[in-house]
Design goal:
Strand content: 15-25%
Number of domains: 1
Distance between the termini: 34 Å
Shape: globular
Helix content: 40-55%
């Protein structure tokens, strides 16, 4: 029998982490939107000025991914569309 080690994450937990980063993105004319939670993985989409911005990778990896790891137990991978 296989036991899942990746329970579904809660939308509230993920949104709480997103809300830590959104003010920064919005202050630069962009936004980060939750697209889906797929098991332990979180899929987001960049909007506005964040699309194509060279700093968006840093915002996602060092900002959002760090916030998700700190706030969401069982977080797996951050996927940006």
């Amino acid at each position: 029998m296989m036991i899942s080690t990746s329970p579904e994450l809660s939308v509230a937990e993920v949104e709480r982490a997103l809300n830590r980063i959104r003010p920064y993105a919005r202050s630069h004319g962009g936004d980060i939107v939750l697209v889906a939670i797929e098991g332990a993985n979180v899929r987001v989409k960049l909007k506005g000025a964040c699309v194509g911005c060279p700093s968006s990778t840093v915002t996602l990896k060092q900002g959002l991914e760090r916030a998700l790891r700190e706030e969401v137990a069982g977080f797996g991978e951050l996927i940006a569309e």
